[in-house]
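Write out this protein's structure.
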Amino acid sequence: MSTRTARASKFVGITAAAALALTACGGGGEDEENGDASEGEGGGTITLGIIPSWTDGLSMAYLWQGILEDEGYDVEIEEINDAALLYTGVAEGDIDVYPSAWPEVTHADYMEEYGDDVEDLGAYYEGAVLTFAVPEYSEINSIEELNDNAEDFDNRVVGIEPGSGHMGVTADSVFPEYELDENFELVESSTSAMLTELGSAIDDEEDIVVTLWRPFYAYGDYDLKDLEDPAGALGEEETLNFVANSEFSSEFPDVAEWMSGFTLSDEEYAELENMMVNEYADNEEEAADVWLEENSDMIDSLKG
């Protein structure tokens, strides 16, 4: 059993109070002020920011908490429930690293907005993609078929957090491209609420269409199929990357180098996320410890 602990502060919505709370929390800015970041490698506090319901980021954060604490760093994990606020935190230095960003397509607007205030440390996973998913038993196979079968899906596309890149792409690209506005409502929700609704629909063998993405553990928990996107409105495949504050590499050069050199195969990623979400549910630190022990050669090689 791991004895490591993470201090996690939850921020809900983009409000003035939330912004002030984020500024008050620890992170790169506070570390620099207190002198921690200048202690050199093997010391100092590194803050990783995640949206906890997005399990790619959650998995990466707890995995890197284990890697870094083994090297003498203090690691804080900040839970933030909106992508816009998370990127703001990275840009302003309150968050050091977002360890599972989608910078090429899904979060491209945030990368453009913050420009020189953030740094892309590189990709750890290739082949990530946004999807529209339905239960395997659904009779349709393409987004093009949705309008002709709108009533079967209760005239709803069940989405996730309103500030997510997926919801922006869906509203600004997919809906107009396929003229879904005529027959569908894009329902703002949360990842957890969407998954609950998806599970209930499958239990009742009802049709439902949801906004999903790969890689994501729901594909292992449910029999799903992705709707074809002949117009390419959901965008091309992209990578999952470490995105840091622009000062991070100069403050923590070794860590930046380790993150830049880290990659996961499909099998390695699936094993990690399955441990985080299923085998060790609600005990992410233990999941990370077990995965690191089973993959110690990879980690040793990463650190040189």
